[in-house]
Amino acid sequence: MIAISTDHKRIGLNLALTSLFYFLLGGLFALLMRAQLTEPNNTLLSNSRYDELFTMHGSTMIYLFVTPMALALALYLVPLQIGARTISGPRVALAGFWIFFCGGLVMQSGWMTSSGPGQDGWTSYTPLSNGTYTPGVGQDLWVIGVILAALGQLLIAGCITVTVARRRAPGMTVLRMPVFTWTALVSVLMVVAAFPVLIVALVLLYLDRHGANIFTGFTGAIDYEDLFWFFGHPVVYVMFFPYLGCAAEAVAVNAHKRWFGYTAFVASMMLFSVLSMSVWGHHMFVTGGITNPYFAFTSTLLLVPAGIEYFDLVGTLVGGSITLRCSMLFGLTFFIQFLIGGTTGIFVASPVLDYNVYGSYFVVAHFHYTLFAGSIFGFFAGVYHWFPKVTGARLREGIGRVHFVLLAIGTNMTFLPMFFLGEDGMPRRVARYRKHPGWATLNRIETAGAGVIALAIVVFLTNVVVSLRRRSLAGNDPWHGHTLEWTTSSPPPALNFEQPLPPVRSYAPLLDLREQAEDEATRRAAPAEAPA
Amino acid sequence: MRSGALPLLCWAALLALSGALNAVWAGASIQTATFGAGVFAIVLFAAAVLLRPQRAGPEAVTRASFATVIVAIGFATLMFGFSFGHFIIYLGVGLMVAGVGRLLLELRHQRRARSQR
Amino acid sequence: MQVFSIVDTRKVYDWVFGIYTPIAVGVIVLFTSLIVGAVLVYRRNTEVSRRHEANALEAAYALVLTCVAAFLLYVTFTAEHRVDTASARERPAITVDVTGSRWEWTFSYPGHGITHESGAVGDQPLVVPANEPVRFRISSADVIHSLWIPQLRFKRDAIPGSTQTVTLDFDRTGHFSGSCAEFCGLLHADMVFTASVITPRAFRSWLASDGRART
Questions:
Q1: Which of A160, A167, A460, B70 is at a distance of 20 to 30 A from C40, taking alpha carbons?
Q2: Alpha helices for C169-211 (secondary structure H)
C-alpha cells in the first residue's frame, strides 16, 4: 500500500526519503573526493575513480537529491497549504515517483559495470561524452538514468502545477496563496518549461553516442551546451526557490508576524523565476559562441528580485516577536549565507570576471554557497518546521542546536577557502594539484570541514531517530502557524482535512483568526476601562 | 477556479518577453527555439486548466494504483534495456502492456463508482 | 576608467573586481547586521506590529537596486569591450597557434618553425614577449579544453571545429603557470604548462635561434 498509494502525502514522503538516501550517498562521494584532495599529488584514488566520484557527486546531488527533495516538499505541502483534499493526476504523480526511482537506480547501476558510472561531470559536455571519448555502458546508463529521473520529476511538477491552478480552497485566490506555495509554483513552472529540453538534449546525446553525428563540430558543441544549460540554470533555481519558501515560512512563523511585503514578494518571484530562465548563457561566457552582453544583462538584473526578498525578510523581523527555535536558526542562516552565494553570483555574471574564475574553485565555492550554505539550510528550516506536521512528533531542540552549530561551522570551513583557491588559479575537477604555496593548507581545512558536515548530518539523523522513538507530541499547531496545513491533525488524515476549513481572507488565514480574536478581546476589555 | 490559469499565462508572457529580447539581442535560433518550447509548455498547461471542465459533485478518489506502478516500472525497464540488452526491452514492453490493461480496468471501476453515487 | 596603452586583461579584471568586491562586502555586512540586529532587538518583543506592506518603500528600493545593476553593467560592458573588442584591433607582435589535445597543449609559432608541447608528456614552455600584444589562435584537436593563464586572469575555451582568436598582453617578465580549465578526461589535471615571459629583445633572439636559445 505504501508503494502504490496515490495519496500526495505518501508519494511526497516516498520521494523525500528516496532523495534523502541520495543525499547521504552523494555526501559519501564528496567525503571520498575531499580525502583525495587533502594532499597535493595524492594517490589515494585513481584519476578515473576521482572523475567518477565528482560526476556522480554532482549528478546524485542535483538530479536525485536537491531537485526531487524540493518537489517532494511541494508535493506534500502545497495541497495542504491551499486546502485541497487530493491532487490533480494522482496516478501521474505516482508514475512520476516510480520513473524517478528507477532513474536513480539506473544511474547508480553504472558503478557495477566494468566501465564505471558516468564520468564526464553532471553536465556531460559533448564531444567528451560521445562514443569516441567516453565509450562504455556506464555513461549510457548515466544518460538513461538522468532522462528517467528528469521525466519522473517533470510528471510530478505537472501535477503540482495543475493542482495549484485548479484545487485551491474557496476564498483562496491566486493572491492569497501562502509564500511557500508561490515559491513552489514558480519552481514547478520552471520544471515544466525547462526539463523537456534536457530530455531532448540527452536523447540526442544518447543517439550521438551510438553513431548519429548530431552534435558535430563547433556548432554541435555549443548547441549541446545551449540545450543543456537552458535546463541547467533554471534547475539551479528549482533547487533554490522552494527552500527560500521554507525559510520564509519558518521565519514568519517564528517572528509571529506574517511575511512582509507579500505583493512585492509575489511580483519579484515572477520576475526572479522568468529571469532565471534567461541567464543560462553565463555558463558559456568563455566559449566565444554566445552573446555575452545579453546574458550578463539578465544575470546582473537578478540582484533586483533577490534584493526584494531580503527587504521582505528584514521587514518581517522588524516589529516581530522573535523566537529562536531551530527552524528559525536554519532559516535566518539560509538568508545570511546565501548573501555570499548571491553576491558572488553577480561576480560570475560579469564576463570579464568569469574569464578568470570560470572552471575554477571560485565557481565551486559560489554554487556550494547557494546550494549547500543556502538551500540545505532552507531545507533543514523546513524539516524542523514541518516535521511535527508530517510525523506528529517534534524534533529535539537541543540536539537540533548541536546539528545547526556543527553544520554552520563545517559549511563555512569547507566552502569559504574555495574562493581563495579559485582566485589563485586552482581549476575544478582535478584529481591532483601541484605543490603551490597555501593550497595544501586550504585544502586540508576544507577536508576537515567536510568531516564536520558529516558529523552534523549524523547528529541530525540521531535527532530524527530519538524524536521518533520517544515522541514529544506536537498537536495540530505546535508553532502557531499561519497557513491551512496547521488546522488539520498531525499527520494529516487521508483526505487532508476532516474539519471545515477556516475562511481564507489572506495568505495567512490562521494568523487572521488570531488577530481577529485579539481585537475582539481588546474591544471587550475597552468598555470596562472606560468608566475609570 | 479558472483564475488558476492566470499566473501561468502571466509567467509565459514574461518568458516570451525575455525570449523576444534574446531574439533581438542575441539572435541565436537555438536559443529562440528553447524559449519558444518553454513558453509553449506553459501555455499548454494553462490551456488544459482553462478548457478542461471542472466536474461538480462528489469525486471518486483514487487511493492506490498498482497498475500505474507497473506501467512506470515497465517504461523504466524498457529504457534500461536500450543499453543493457534487447531482451530487457521486451520485458519492459510486456510489463507496460500488462500495466496498461490493468489500468484500463481500474479506470472503468472508478467511472462506475462515480456514476453509482 | 583607466586608459590602457595595450590590452591588459589582468588590469581590466582587477579594475572590475576592485569595484564589485567592496559593493558585495558592503551588501553582506549590511544585511547580516540588519538581520542579526533585528533578531536581537525583537527577541521576546511582546508588541507585535501588524504592518505588513510598504509598497512605496519597496518600489523606491527596487529603483535603487536597478541603479546598482545599471552601474555594475556599465562597468562590466566597458571592461568587456576592452578585453573582447578593442583587443582585436591591436597589432600583435607575434601570433601563437595553441592547440589543445588530450592531454597536451601545443604552442606553435607560424613562420618560425617552432613548436612546443606541454602537458602529460612534455613540459616545453609557452614563450612570449613582455609588454607586447600576443595573438593566440586557440583550437582543439578532440574535446573541449580551456586555456587558462591565472596571471592574466583570462581563459578561453578551445573547441573542436573552431579557432578562437584572442589578443593578450603580459605586463611583466617571469614564469607563470597555466592549465586546462574545462574537464577533458583522465589526465585533465596534467594539462599544465608554464608561460615564460621574456623581454622583447630576448624573445627576438629566441625566435632567431629557432627556439634553441635558453628562455
A1: A460
A2: 200-208
Nearest CA in chain A to C193: A434
| Chain A contact partners (≥3 CB pairs within 8 A) | B, C
Q: Residue C1 — very low, low, confident or very high, per pLDDT cuts 50/70/90?
A: very low
Cβ atoms < 10 Å from Cβ of A68: 30
Q: Please answer whether residues B1 and A167 qualify as being in contact, where contact means their C-beta atoms are separated by less than 8 angstroms.
A: yes
Give the minimum alpha-carbon distance from B99 to chain A in angstroms, rounded to a whole number: 11
pLDDT on residue C4: 45
From the number of C-beta atoms within 10 Å of its C-beta (0-12, 13-18, 19+), residue B63 rates as middle
**Cα separation, A111 vs A113, whole angstroms:** 6
**Residues A358, A348: contact at Cβ < 8 Å?**
yes
From first CA to last CA, the distance across chain A in angstroms is 66
Cα–Cα distance, A131 to A129 (Å, whole number):
7
d(CA A187, CA A170): 24
d(CA C27, CA C72): 14
User: Residue holding cell 591591436?
Assistant: C90
Burial A367-380 (b: 16+ CB within 10 A, else e): bbbbbbbbbbbbbb
Proportion of chain A above pLDDT 70, given as a percent: 99
Chain centre distance of CA B57: 25
Query: Residue B30: CB partners within 8 Å, gap ≥ 6?
Result: A223, A226, A227
C-alpha cell at A475: 498537536
Grid cell locating A107: 544511474
Nearest to A393 by CA among A307, A296, A491: A491
- The residue among A530 and A426 whose pLDDT is bigger is A426
| pLDDT value of residue C87 | 84
Chain C nearest CA to A465, separation (Å):
31
| Ramachandran assignment for C130, one of left (phi > 0), alpha (psi -120 to 50 degrees), beta (any other) | beta
Chain C residues closer than 8 Å to A318 by CB = 38, 42, 49
Cis? peptide before C103, omega within 30° of 0: yes
What percentage of residues in chain A have a pLDDT greater than 90?
Answer: 96
What would the pLDDT profile of A244-266 be if each residue is shown by its tens digit? 999 999 999 999 999 999 999 99
Check contact B-C (3+ Cβ pairs < 8 Å): no
- Residue C199 near residue C211 (C-beta atoms within 8 A): no
Q: Is the pLDDT confidence value at A161 over 90?
A: yes
Q: For residue A250, give the amino acid letter.
A: A
Based on its alpha-carbon atoms, the radius of gyration of chain B, rounded to whole angstroms, reads: 21
Closest to B73 (Cα-Cα) out of B104, B52, B94: B94
Residue A431 amino acid letter = A
| Residue B29 neighbours by CB under 8 Å, 6+ apart | none
- pLDDT (tens digit per residue) in A112-132: 999 999 999 999 999 999 999
Q: How far apart are CA A356 and CA A152, in angstroms?
A: 37
Helix, coil or strand: residue B95: helix
Q: Which residues pair with C117 in a beta bridge?
A: C106
CA distances from B66 to A10, A61, A525, B76 (A): 14, 29, 59, 16
Collapse the DSSP code of C107 into the 3-class scheme (helix H, G, I; strand E, B; otherwise coil) and give the result: strand
Partner residues linked to A473 by β-bridges: A393
**pLDDT tens-digit profile of A426-468?**
999 999 998 899 999 999 999 999 999 999 999 999 999 999 9
How far is residue C99's CA from residue C159's CA, in Å, rounded to a whole number? 10
**Residue keyed to cell 563555512:** A412
Touching subunits for chain B (3+ Cβ pairs under 8 A): A
Closest residue by Cα to residue C92 from C205, C187, C203, C209: C203
SS (H, E, C) A465-513: HHHHHCCCECCCCCCCCCCHHHHCCCCCCCCCCCCCCCCCCCCCHHHHH
Please give the pLDDT value at position A531.
53
